[in-house]
Amino acid sequence: MRQGFRQSMAWLHTWSGLVVGWVLFAVFVTGTATYYRTEITQWMRPELQAGATFDAGRAADLGADFLKARAPDAVGWFIGLPQPDKPLIEVHWWKDLAGPFHHALLDPATGAPTAARATQGGDFLYRFHFELNMPPLWGRWIVGICALILLVSLVSGIITHRRIFADVFTFRRTKSAQRGWLDAHNVTGVLALPFHLMIAYTGLVTFALMYVPWGVTAAYKGDEIRFFVEAQLMPEVRAPAGKPGGLVSLSPLVAQAQGRVSETLEHVAVYNPGDAAATIVTIFEEPHGLAHLHPQIAFDGASGAELGATGIAKAATHISASFVGLHEAHFAGPWLKALFFLCGLMGAATIGTGLVLWTVARLPKPAERPGFGYRLVRALNLGTVAGLPVGLAVYFLANRLLPVGLEGRAETEIRLFFGAWACVALAGLLRPHRAAWREAFGLASLLFLAVPLVSAATTGQHPFDGAARFLGFDAAMLAIGLLLAAASYRAGAPRPRRAGAAEPRPAPRPAAHRAQAAVPQARSAEGAEIRRRA
Amino acid sequence: MGQPQQGRGIAYRMGVAGRVLLAALGGYGLAALLTALLSVTLPLPRSEAVAAATLPSFAVMVAAAIFVFASRSLARAALGLGALCLLLGGGLWLVQGQA
Amino acid sequence: MTPLVLALNLALSFAALAALALSLDRHHRDAFLVRVPKGRARTLRLAGWAGITASFAAAVSFEGWNFGPVQWIGALTGAALLVVALLAYRPGWLRPAALAALPLALAALPFALKG
After folding, report:
1. What does the DSSP 8-state code read for residue A83?
2. Helix A334-361 × helix A177-191 angle, to 10°
3. Which of A141, A202, A250, B81 meets the CB 3.0–4.6 Å disulfide criterion with B26?
4. Residues of chain A that touch chain C, judged by Cβ-Cβ distance less than 8 Å
5. A64, A110, A105: which is closest to A88 by C-alpha?
């Protein structure tokens, strides 16, 4: 908030980015990992072999049998049918729409609870990225507010960055620490700018009706279900009749529904299963396209007669659904998905470099004792940027090292994730700052490099034994481990402390001619510019 | 915070707090009112009007926040946002009254 | 065949962005130690924008208006990152790499057409 439009936008960019940076870094990292949610879950349940196909009707019946025995008085059942990439029946049930929502995984061959190890797998990272492991409402609001502030930060950042096109390829890594961080922040931010804007906006749109329910309030008197039905997002639903009734077998309805829709059948929902007016809804995968729209057909639970189906969504609804689809990128093939993943990493890098830049630009003079705020930001930076990778590696290692039959196993994995993360953040307070970065990144690197080894040792499945199914995951762990090792090495390498400081050692060959060719700039002016923009 | 030379008095801090509050509440209020008004006035089927009105609401919030922080003074920003909200609120009241 | 179209997009975007980067004094000096001559800058800029347009046209004509633009932007981002990395670490390699990318794009084209 200084005089002048650009100055006030620079101020806004700096501070809006700082206050939400730590949460957003975690959201970006876990969200980026979510592009490979299925692969992560497969790796975390090594007992299961992916690739088989299943009889959807039989699986639906097995799910219903389990739920009839377990939760006959529930008001809702939700049966996730087994797929080649997820060979399990996943059932949810709830006795109250407000929760709690119970959950079980069944063997698709027998319908009994699965023998695979208990873990939340990639689903934990997926849910964390928009709920932060908090009560859903709290987590979604906090992440939503952070995403909105991210948008403000992006827009003010674009306004601040005067030479956005002229500087788009500029990364002066050898000039000064501050320049290097500023350029890294700009490059990762600007090159993937379309992605950053898209991902922030579409993420908000995903929960738009929760954040901005006022359109539904005004036009539907708050009746959200009515809106969903009219928008063709779900078929007509019925209120319970209040008297008990029987439920038809699901498999004939599954076959009937599959005859109508060519997409893969994903879920079968049963609302008020013990009631005379029970409703069965078959939910299909979204048709190939950007839009996140699941075709659905509803049946009467007592007679099996069709009650209704979703039609074709109109333009505005379709555009909204396409926003959600863009966020999820389910449509992307492996190569495009890899680019999305890369963009997600660049988002995390933009946030991480921005956070570090804040401290680099405010580095106290050698004799000065840094203030509380400065030390707090520095500690949070280290705790988040270096602590989260350690937590992630520990999460994967715990999956392999905890006994398979351990009570509360899935929860213990998650507790270890948070525990390791917190340990790094706290231990960072006890060490000199530079050493803390080097050691935390080094630890994360070692842990990630250990993942394939521990996995091979505990499961007996490894690429050298012809078991190639986790080759991709193992390679990713090694790549991340090496990247973190490089980060650890760089964090420990001596770097110029302030803008304009001389290089402490002779620059390597390719940099030498660049240093001579660089436009001579008044050092003080350069420092001032960085400070203004950082 | 590391920049003591910039005179961060209580007035400055209150000004920042005021703008943060105005950007948050004013931005959200503006977006909420605009979404509600468009939902009942757009010449589209009801569900389409709601979808079309909800989609841009986050852009409205961002624009409002940028406006608040770019304004020369807090009072000007408050006046501008307040007038817009009053206008939209009045329109919504008229439309809802007719229905 | 999406992977081939993506490869085509990546190669075209990379060559185009490399041309655009080399049309700027700063990066031309990184790679060739001298300022970029005026006429050459214009040619490079023209070639760069033409390449980006061609990449867009290829993406949209193969993938449609739905996925085409998404893939085009994704490829641009990936290619730009590569250009920046080369400029920072191996500036001398940028020109040969860009020149090598062009025939690669041409080679991918018939396969993309067939798929």
Report:
1. B
2. 150
3. B81
4. 166, 168-171, 173, 187, 191-192, 194-195, 289-290, 326, 331, 333-336, 339-340, 342-343, 346, 510, 513-514, 517, 519
5. A105
Please enumerate in sequence order all residues whose Cβ is within 8 A of that of A301, keeping only pairs 6 or more positions apart, or say none: A245, A247, A248, A270, A272, A273, A275, A277, A278, A279, A280
Could you tell me how many residues make up chain B? Answer: 99
* Token pair listed for A415: 């507790």
d(CA A432, CA A427): 10
Which tokens go with B18?
A: 């005021």
Contact B48 A227 (CB under 8 A): no
Q: Across the A/B interface, how many CB contacts are shorter than 8 Å?
A: 118
> Cα angle at A424 between A367 and A373, to 5 degrees?
40
Q: Three-state SS across chain B?
A: CCCHHHCCCHHHHHHHHHHHHHHHHHHHHHHHHHHHHHHHHCCCCHHHHHHHHHCCHHHHHHHHHHHHHHCCCHHHHHHHHHHHHHHHHHHHHHHHHHC
Q: How many separate domains does chain B show?
A: 1
Judged by CB atoms closer than 8 Å, whether chains meet at A346 and C92 is answered as no
Question: How far is residue C64 from each of residues A292, A320, C68, measured CA to CA in Å?
Answer: 18, 19, 5
| Residue A166 phi, psi (nearest 5) | -65, -30
Q: Which residues of chain A lie closer than 8 angstroms to B70, CB-CB?
A: 5, 8-9
Residue with tokens 């698709």: A108
Query: Do A236 and A298 touch, CB atoms closer than 8 A?
Result: yes
Does some domain include residue B2? Answer: no
Mean pLDDT taken over chain A: 89
Residue numbers of the domain that contains B36 = 7-98
Q: Do C92 and A510 touch (CB under 8 A)?
A: yes
Predicted confidence (pLDDT) per residue in A368-404, tens digit: 888 899 999 999 999 999 999 999 999 999 999 999 9
Q: Which amino acid is at A478?
A: L
